[in-house]
Design goal:
Alpha-Beta Plaits, elongated, single chain, 61% helix, two-stranded antiparallel sheet, 6 strands, four-stranded antiparallel β-sheet, 2 domains, alpha+beta
Length: 333
């Protein structure tokens, strides 16, 4: 066991010296800074209960207070996150869990940092609040002065941060862990997973909020899932390119030798001519897709091509490291 721990620490030290580690650390920090801003400026003042762990903790705090039991909001958030982090390690993977530990730990401090830099309840020289307006439903403070505007701003910021984190196999913590579990085991889109997990949490707000505020929260949770799917598809968008051409061998060689990608060949029969030919199918990122189209145009290759968007790829997909190894194998031939 001690050898395994020592090896794990050695591997971690080596990993911290790579560009991948520092790039992902920067992305996680920026993503959580955006999340903290969304929570601090649009969730806390208006008291909107969106389907998040913070929202669930607010509800539980009020319920416990009604029972004469006082538990701080921070304590509840920490306890729930610990349980979810354990689930992340056991049910998803260690990399996802380790990254989520970092993001969960910095959310609170970053929210406090926003409070020091630009507090939402700041007063001007006349002693009047300059950022907060009353929520017409609850009477509580509101940055935008309208719960729907607060909701839109919160969802846009949070969804963008969630999609960014999911793209590097991390999360903003809390609800994202439940969404990732639903996504992995039930195979729902990540946005649908966020909506399902969030809706269950959001319904707990019936215990403390007016009916209208709960409905706004549910709508916000649903919209959040849609926007997460949009941002995720944009960040992870790939192209499935299908080409029918007599020059399929030249195209295949270009894909393998220049793009360092694999491809699949199918024998097809033309429905009009009855002629047999070869269809080539390849999955590419945006840059590779543009390159091969430009190359086919420059080489005046006669081909019939179709392309479609692919937002998620499962199984083998040649990463940068794998593609480098493939190139080295090709060069040795």
């Amino acid at each position: 066991m001690s050898l395994n721990i020592k090896q794990t620490l050695t591997d971690f030290v080596k990993y911290t010296g790579t560009w991948k580690f520092w790039k992902e650390l920067i992305i996680m920090t920026l993503g959580m800074a955006v999340t903290a801003a969304a929570v601090y400026y649009f969730l806390v003042p208006s008291k909107l209960i969106i389907g998040t762990i913070s929202g669930l903790s607010i509800v539980l705090t009020k319920i416990f207070e009604g029972m004469g039991i006082y538990i701080s909001l921070g304590t509840l958030i920490m306890v729930i996150n610990i349980v979810l982090l354990i689930l992340a390690f056991l049910l998803i993977n260690k990399e996802f869990g380790a990254k989520t530990v970092y993001t969960a730990l910095i959310l609170g401090p970053l929210a406090d940092l926003w409070a020091k830099i630009l507090p939402w309840d700041a007063k001007n020289a006349a002693g009047e609040y300059i950022l907060a307006n009353p929520n017409p439903i609850t009477g509580s403070a509101s940055i935008m002065g309208d719960p729907w505007l607060d909701l839109c701003c919160f969802v846009l910021l949070l969804s963008a941060a969630q999609a960014l984190m999911f793209s590097i196999n991390a999360s903003t913590g809390g609800l994202d862990i439940l969404a990732k579990i639903v996504n992995k085991y039930l195979h729902f889109d990540i946005g649908a997973s966020v909506s399902i997990a969030g809706a269950v949490i959001c319904c707990t707000a019936f215990a403390i909020n007016p009916f209208r505020m709960v409905i706004i929260g549910l709508i916000g949770t649903w919209i959040n899932g849609l926007v997460v799917d949009y941002f995720t598809a944009t960040l992870n968008n790939h192209k499935r390119l299908c080409i029918v051409s007599k020059d399929y061998e030249r195209i295949r060689q270009y894909i393998i030798n220049e793009l360092h990608r694999g491809c699949t060949l199918y024998e097809v029969t033309g429905g009009y001519s009855g002629e047999k030919s070869i269809e080539l199918e390849v999955l590419l990122n945006k840059d590779e897709f543009s390159k091969i189209l430009a190359w086919m145009k420059d080489e005046k290759i006669d081909a019939f091509s179709t392309a479609g968007n692919v937002s998620e790829v499962y199984g083998f997909w040649a990463s940068g490291k794998r593609r480098k190894q493939l190139k080295e194998q090709i060069d040795k031939r």
